[in-house]
Design goal:
Shape: globular
Distance between the termini: 13 Å
Number of helices: 10
CATH architecture of one domain: 3-Layer(aba) Sandwich
Largest sheet: 7 strands, parallel
Helix content: 25-40%
CATH superfamily of one domain: NAD(P)-binding Rossmann-like Domain
Low-confidence stretches: 1-8
Order of helices and strands: EHEEHEHHEHEEHEEEHEEHEEHH
CATH topology of one domain: Rossmann fold
Oligomer: single chain
Strand content: 15-25%
Radius of gyration: 19 Å
């Protein structure tokens, strides 16, 4: 349920959230408005998935003209939270042109928008920029993307970090879309499968220290205040395998009659696009900056209430 909106604080510059029809963008836009910010969301292909009670504008970030028109409609911008991207590793591998346009060209367009307004830019990136061979990745570890999606996100990072007000946040957000996008992310697919008594496979050797979009929204607002530039890893203070996450979900459905088979990511057929296994971060820097990182099991309970 959306909270009643507070009156905007004394702010002349707006906050912009790209990808406001997506899981994180939707939650972040709601949070900013609830905190009293004059915030505007952008969406492209999914107008039915935005919060109609909030300010949202259509914008194709991969199109320079569309982004320039956006700036004229919004006015002065103070902070941009760039959540929009083309996701889905297999989808990106199959349609590299669309992936490039959204994740590389789109990010360059948003950077130019930030530069024109001298705005802070918070770019949401991913743990899959790393090879995933060992996990516990720190901010200064060398990226090694293993698929096209991960490469485009890394190129976006490099462009953002070349901007003097650019911040890269690497994170694995989890949650269930508040308006109704079905099976678009791991948690939605998992809950839908269990609810409908489907049988499925879970990776026992893919590890994450994800964080709920509810918790992440609060963190991102604080990041925009305390970081001037650079990279920050955000996530839960502990890791779980995707199989362990699945078992938590299954425990919420005592009448589940399907089979959840635990397999290795290596056992997937050859046309399966390569994915990192150890997708978890070292969050010591975030803790030193004063952020309290949650327990992943608590985050799952928050999502599954």
């Amino acid at each position: 349920m959306v909270k009643l909106l507070k009156k905007p604080r004394n702010m002349t510059a707006k906050a912009v959230v790209t990808g406001a029809s997506g899981l994180l963008g939707l939650e972040l836009l709601r949070y900013l408005n609830n905190e009293g910010f004059d915030a505007v969301g952008t969406f492209n292909a999914n107008p039915k998935l935005v919060d109609k009670n909030l300010k949202n504008l259509k914008c194709n970030i991969g199109d320079t003209v569309s982004v320039n028109l956006l700036a004229k409609k919004i006015g002065k911008i103070g902070t941009i939270f760039h959540c929009a991207s083309m996701t889905g590793i297999d989808k990106c591998e199959k349609d590299k042109n669309a992936c490039w346009q959204a994740n590389v060209v789109g990010t360059r367009n948003i950077i130019n928008l930030a530069k024109n307004h001298k705005a802070k830019l918070i770019y949401i990136s991913t743990g899959s920029v790393f090879s995933g061979e060992r996990g516990n990745y720190k901010e200064n570890d060398t990226p090694e993307p293993r698929n096209f999606y991960s490469l485009t996100k890394l190129l976006g990072e490099e462009a953002v970090l070349a901007y003097d007000k650019g911040v890269v946040v690497r994170v694995t957000p989890i949650g269930i879309h508040g308006i109704g996008r079905p099976q678009d992310n791991f948690m939605e697919w998992l809950v839908d499968s269990v609810y409908n008594n489907k049988s499925f496979n879970l990776f026992g050797d893919v590890y994450i220290n994800a964080i709920s979009v509810e918790s992440l929204a609060e963190v991102l607002l604080k990041v925009s205040k305390v970081m001037k530039r650079g990279v920050l890893h955000v996530g839960s203070k502990n890791r779980l395998s995707k199989a362990e996450v699945g078992q938590v979900v299954i425990s919420k459905f005592p009448n589940f009659s399907g089979e959840a088979k635990i397999i290795s990511v290596k056992d997937v057929p050859g046309d399966f696009v390569s994915r990192p296994k150890e997708m978890w971060f070292n969050v010591d820097k975030a803790v030193k900056l004063g952020f309290k990182m949650p327990n992943l099991r608590d985050e799952l309970e928050l999502i599954l209430i």
